[in-house]
Write a structure and sequence with these properties.
EC number: 2.3.2.27
Largest sheet: 3 strands, antiparallel
Domain RING-type: 302-344
Shape: globular
Oligomer: single chain
Radius of gyration: 23 Å
Domain ZZ-type: 19-75, 157-213
Order of helices and strands: HEEHEHEEHHHEEHEHHHHHH
Number of domains: 3
Number of helices: 13
Mean pLDDT: 79
GO cellular component, one term: plasma membrane
Low-confidence stretches: 1-16, 349-355
Helix content: 25-40%
Structural class: alpha+beta
Distance between the termini: 35 Å
Keywords: Endosome, Lysosome, Metal-binding, Transferase, Ubl conjugation pathway, Zinc, Zinc-finger
Number of strands: 8
């Protein structure tokens, strides 16, 4: 229906704005981005813990204004790595009356029952809690908080469509391409190997199960992520981080979709191509740093023949952008192997992927 079509194309925030610098609006303490308190009425008013507990205020801010606590850094990273989303247990402040409700569902129910006449120029407590940047035009919700919650923070509002057959919505497994910009397939199209002009067979694809299927797993399987560069499957979040730091640090210019964000269905994710590099995203949005990496081979050694390499290959043969081999070695390699000798990524037209 029209409601589902609107949900498909409505613009929503892309990623949590973890880079934004925030200072206390009262005592001017620097960098209080994590664990701060943000007014849901004022344009840009944030308090540190000390000023909030001391009931300090100034300017246009008043003590009776609804104020939402922002997650601390550890809680934020815990959320962004959780397949079974814990945001249902987060206290959310109603921007209309200041009452606190646990989880999006209870907040939405409260707003529908208590505030049938919605108000403009208020902030969404979910967006504030998870550091979600608002639209470029305004930091406020202008079409009402209930409409915003329904469209951007509920499973129905974020309904997924198959981009091959337009089946709507996908209720079972979804297959998310990690290369194409917002391209997902239903189970039938993926298993039937149906493609279109932009989605190609060598693109890494991340399977996303319905939430109830993850809930039913006991214990929860952790090795479910696929590398967006070479397509290798069955990584845990930590192992994926190690793998990318070990083999794909030279892929920073390639824009990909984060498989962790796709699987976790994070409340701030539109599943768009990342604007920053994937390894930076893993650190800044998921708190994932490499651990226990194996020592790398020398930078002046061809990975195929293991002889001295004066200069890396001047050509890029693979979408992973590895080029630490002699041209003659990789050309011989390609006569029998269609994948990268370093990470096993498929051969592809790199120039197209970089655009």
């Amino acid at each position: 229906g029209n409601e589902l079509s609107e949900a498909r194309f409505s613009p929503i925030p892309i990623m949590a704005d973890v880079y934004k610098a925030v200072d206390c609006s009262f005592c001017h303490e620097k960098d209080i981005k994590w664990g701060r308190f943000e007014c849901l009425v004022c344009t840009d008013y944030n308090l540190c813990r000390k000023c909030y507990d001391g009931e300090q205020y100034g300017g246009s801010h008043r003590l009776y204004h609804p104020t939402q606590p922002v997650l601390d850094k550890e809680a934020f990273f815990e959320l962004t790595k959780s397949i079974l989303k814990p945001e249902d247990d987060v206290d959310l402040c109603c921007p209309l009356c200041g009452q606190r409700k646990v989880g999006v569902a209870k907040l939405l129910q409260h707003c529908l029952l208590k505030h049938p006449v919605d108000a403009d120029r208020i902030k969404c407590p979910v967006c504030v809690t998870f550091c979600i940047p608002q639209s470029q035009d305004s930091v406020f919700v202008y079409k009402g908080i209930t409409n915003h919650l329904q469209r951007h923070h509920t499973e129905r509002g974020l309904a997924f469509f198959c981009d091959t057959c337009d089946k709507a919505p996908i209720t079972r497994n979804r297959y998310m391409c990690l290369i194409c910009d917002e391209y997902g397939q239903c189970d039938d199209c993926f298993k039937g190997k149906r493609l279109d002009k932009k989605h190609l067979p060598y693109h890494p694809v991340q399977v996303v199960l319905p939430k109830e299927d993850y809930v039913a797993q006991n214990p929860l399987r952790e090795t479910i992520y696929r590398c967006p560069f070479c397509g290798e499957p069955d990584f845990s979040a930590t192992d994926l981080t190690n793998h990318c730091h070990e083999l794909h640090l030279n892929c920073r210019e390639l824009r990909v979709i984060c498989p962790i964000c796709a699987v976790c269905r994070l409340p701030f994710a539109e599943y768009s191509l990342l604007k920053d590099s994937f390894v930076d995203h893993l650190e800044n949005y998921h708190g994932l740093l490499p651990t226990g990496l194996k020592p790398k081979s020398g930078p002046n050694e061809c990975v195929i023949c293991l002889l001295e390499l004066a200069h890396p290959s001047g050509e890029y043969y693979f979408r992973c952008l590895h080029n630490n081999f002699h041209d003659q070695c990789v050309q011989k390699w390609l006569s029998t192997n269609p994948t990268c000798p370093v990470c096993r990524a498929n051969r592809a037209f790199v120039r197209v992927l970089l655009e």
